[in-house]
Amino acid sequence: MAARVKALVAGNWKMNGVRASKKEVTALARKLAGKTKPACDVLICPPATLVTTLKEVAKGRKIAIGGQDCHAKQSGAHTGDISAEMLKDAGAAYVIVGHSERRADHGETDKIVRAKAEAAYRAGLVAIICVGETEDERDAGQTLKVIRTQLKGSLPDGATAKTTVVAYEPVWAIGTGRTPTSDDVAKVHAAIRKALEKRFGAEGTKMRILYGGSVKPSNASELMAVPNVNGALVGGASLKADDFWGIISAYA
Ligand code: PGA
């Protein structure tokens, strides 16, 4: 029996957004301060250049700020990289690790993702650890096998419900407008829950499992109602306050 966990709706801005984009966060904060109080936590993960700016805008509001990636080390000769400690210092409370775009564009393996999640814990950040199958893997009937392998390899042994969020993002659903059926989402989330409980016991029962991949206002209510879906990781539809609010409202 799944525990009652507070949902998390997280926006992943990817490589989008400049300082002027803070108006979207201001608009979202205004909506969150209105009459409708959604029963979920709200997070925005902008590019690292905007973490401090958005943290200032979100100050005192019910919006947390996070990073999209971090290096496993705390500091050192790693040109262009950003550590979990730096994100924390800039105002982040969360960091996404192992997003499929990082796995594909930067050759990140489960081992690297796990080291990054450990770095997040070290810095006091919540790690949002992403897993998901490609279309070929899905067509070959390998979805659950791929997900179990990624979970095993990417989640540190010390993961707890407080420090860790799992995001299931089928690679073929990201940015494509295509989504799995509710039944398919239910099957994968149930398998993830089972794997988490087996490995982490009671912590695994409470760990949040987000669904990500083409979540939008029109499909959010249906997807968020699926058992073991404890929120969403949203790309494109998190960039505009109105769209993001439409998704958050699934929890109103
Ligand atoms: P999307 O992206 O909502 O634009 O499909 C989701 C993600 O990659 O986190």
Descriptive overview:
By secondary structure, the protein is α/β, with parallel strands linked by helices. It has a single domain (7-251), classed as Aldolase class I (TIM Barrel, Alpha-Beta Barrel). Helix content is 41%, strand content 16%. The chain is built from 11 helices and 8 strands. The protein has helices at residues 22-32, 51-58, 84-90, 100-105, 110-123, 135-139, 143-154, 182-200, 202-206, 217-224, 241-248; strands at 7-12, 40-45, 64-67, 94-97, 126-131, 164-168, 208-212, 231-234. It has an 8-stranded parallel beta barrel with strand order 1-2-3-4-5-6-7-8, surrounded by 7 helices. Helix 3 links the parallel strand 3 and strand 4 (94-97). Helix 5 (110-123) crosses helix 7 (143-154). It is globular and about 45 Å long. The mean pLDDT is 97. The structure holds 2-phosphoglycolic acid. The site of 2-phosphoglycolic acid (PGA) has 13 residues, from strand 8. 2-phosphoglycolic acid binds next to strand 8.
Tell me the count of domains: 1
Distance between the termini: 24 Å
* Associated small molecules: 2-phosphoglycolic acid
* CATH fold-type name: TIM Barrel
Radius of gyration: 17 Å
Multimer state? single chain
Architecture per CATH nomenclature, i.e. the level-2 architecture: Alpha-Beta Barrel
Poorly predicted ranges (pLDDT <50, ≥5 residues)? none
Strand content: 15-25%
Q: Give a short account of the largest sheet.
A: 8 strands, parallel, barrel
Average pLDDT value? 97
At the first level of CATH, what is the class? Alpha Beta
**Largest sheet, spatial ordering of strands:** 1-2-3-4-5-6-7-8
Helicity, in percent? 40-55%
